[in-house]
Automatic annotation (TrEMBL), chains A, B:
Modes of activity regulation: Appears to be allosterically activated by the binding of pArg-containing polypeptides to the pArg-binding pocket localized in the C-terminal domain of McsB.
One Pfam family it belongs to: ATP-gua_Ptrans
Kinase recorded as keyword: yes
Binding positions (ATP): 17-21, 76, 109, 160-164, 191-196
EC numbers, comma separated: 2.7.14.1
Function: Catalyzes the specific phosphorylation of arginine residues in proteins.
A single cellular component GO annotation: extracellular space
Record-given protein name: Protein-arginine kinase
Superkingdom of origin: Bacteria
Gene transcribed to yield this protein: mcsB
Motif stretch (RDXXRA motif of the pArg binding pocket involved in allosteric regulation): 321-326
EC top class named in words: transferase
InterPro entries the record matches: Arg_Kinase, ATP-guanido_PTrfase, ATP-guanido_PTrfase_AS, ATP-guanido_PTrfase_cat, Gln_synth/guanido_kin_cat_dom
């Protein structure tokens, strides 16, 4: 189901994925907050035409069934804000690594996803897409400010670069706050997987730039790559420490998580994410065999509420989802 | 290790075991509390001689290594009080179903154990042993009171009959207090497995007679058998109810317990007993296959602290025991 996660990329043992998104607006239309439906339709057509048929398929949000829309959000292919408006749409590549969202908060949101610590590469692809579009449409741009955006927090580069990192050992050794708090000094923010205000489910954290003005894109990218690399190293040291100094408890935690996931008949999203996190740690430490870290990372995404309902092609209540989730986990974990 | 538990007996799905013990004293000696070591030695010799070689092997407590003594207590073959005195001893059959404890609280404590609801049978065997001894020694007996004992709570018949019953479904449906409290009206007491004041570990309860005077042995036995039979029926109804009305949660609880026991690397006695209790329920409901209820009941006994140390032939701290216990459980559960 999740096609963009690959078993490759730098620091893949800690960094699950990298993402770059660029906010852009067309100069000849009002910002989406002040637009008519007719103008939104024009923007959609302009952007789709600009992309041409370079491997992109385009969809209007109003044409996509409810569950599929949420599932795409859960897969990080589109944003939660995009599906709130019927006039919005998006174009995406078949492997879902690149998406151009249309009429989200801004006219255009270019997004590129990749596995592992791969911001330079994702930035390069996003930049190419940006150039492709810029050849066909005129962006709202100010010589002094940079790209103009609906929300001032995106002004300038319009870029938000982020990495999703898995920090179970830093959590277990109670170092996670100590390690993550200095990140703010560098103008970076730490969030849960589901964005601002959400907690870190399954020990997954998102680190992204707060500031979009002042620095060049390459500088921001390099800063996040550096810091993510340092945090990965600290997570690795914590894993090594636990393995060497507290092996029995470490193995116990991992195997119990494995035993529950292989046997439960009903499991909540939160518990499943927590247990998957330990199994992932076990795979990394080669304590759990016959499982692929990439398949496990996909499970984190596939056990989310809409994704489960999408598999079953029907709406399900919490209880039904918890039962189906347990079934998927029993089947998928080897 | 535990030889007296068999996969047979009435109401074996709920009643783990039945036990009858008779307190007796010799008329020509003071009670053990007021005895000299020399007299204790005489009593030991008298009783062993009286038993002859009718399948009994006799041991002085002082000759038995520390861990083995506690293990015999954990197996319910001898009582905790017996091992506190160096002058005490016991004779037991090879299958450990019958024990004669010597110089415990009373000169003689005859005990017979059996699987399932089998009090009539255990009483019959205890009575035969009692008659055998009475042919050779003179009991302290009063025409009006009955058998004289060190503690007045045993006066009369000197008999304590008890059954160990497994009530997980009554616990899960929160009916256990409602079902067990009327038992007191019939002069019966409910206790945890480890006797008075202990809690019901692994949903195991012990029901025994409080009163040893007034009624004949057969009357007491029949009363306990009746009540244990009724409680078993209620437990069965609760199991059926859960299976029919709450199957997913029921299976989830059972399989999670199974998954943890099959995977944990470290487990406390209390947690292990609780999880074994659910697996036992799963075997009874044929949800867990390939496991024998008898082997599982033996595990309840074999995972106790001294039994674990006895297997390893060395003293172990709590942490070492918890690791060894997890290993035994992973190996023994199929």
């Amino acid at each position: 189901m999740v096609s963009w996660l690959k078993n490759s990329g730098k620091d893949r043992d800690v960094v699950v994925s990298s993402r770059v998104r660029l906010a852009r607006n067309l100069s000849n239309y009002n910002f989406p907050t002040k637009m008519t439906s007719v103008d939104m339709d024009e923007v959609y057509k302009d952007v789709v035409a600009a992309l041409g048929n370079g491997g992109f398929t385009s969809f209007r949000i109003s044409d996509i069934p409810y569950l599929e829309k949420i599932m795409l959000v859960e897969k990080h292919v589109i944003s939660p804000a995009l599906i709130e408006k019927n006039e919005s749409g998006f174009s995406m590549t078949e492997d879902e690594t690149a998406t151009v969202m249309i009429n989200e908060e801004d006219h255009i949101r270019i997004q590129v996803l990749d596995s592992g610590l791969s911001l330079e590469n994702t930035w390069k692809r996003a930049d190419e897409l940006d150039n492709l579009l810029e050849e066909k449409v005129e962006y709202a741009y100010d010589e002094k400010v940079g790209y103009l955006t609906a929300c001032p927090t995106n002004l300038g580069t319009g870029m938000r670069a982020s990495v999703m990192i898995h920090l179970p050992a830093l959590e277990l050794t109670r170092q996670v706050n100590k390690v993550l708090s200095p990140v703010a000094q560098f103008g970076l923010a730490v969030r849960g997987v589901y964005g601002e205000g959400t907690k870190a489910m399954g020990s997954l954290y998102q680190i992204s730039n707060q500031i979009t003005m002042g620095d060049r894109e390459e500088t921001i990218i390099r800063k996040i790559e550096n810091i993510a690399g340092q945090i990965s190293e600290k997570e690795r040291m914590a894993r090594k420490y636990l393995l060497e100094n507290d092996r029995t408890n470490y193995e116990d935690r991992i195997f119990r998580a494995y035993g529950i996931l292989k046997n439960a008949r009903k499991i909540s999203h939160e518990e499943a994410a927590k247990l998957l996190s330990y199994v992932k740690l076990g795979i990394d430490a080669e304590i759990i065999k016959n499982n692929d870290i990439n398949e496990l990372d996909k499970l984190f995404i596939e056990i989310q509420p809409a994704s489960i309902q999408f598999i079953e092609r029907k709406e399900m209540d919490t209880n039904e989802r918890d039962i189906k989730r347990a079934e998927i986990l029993r089947d998928e974990i080897k």
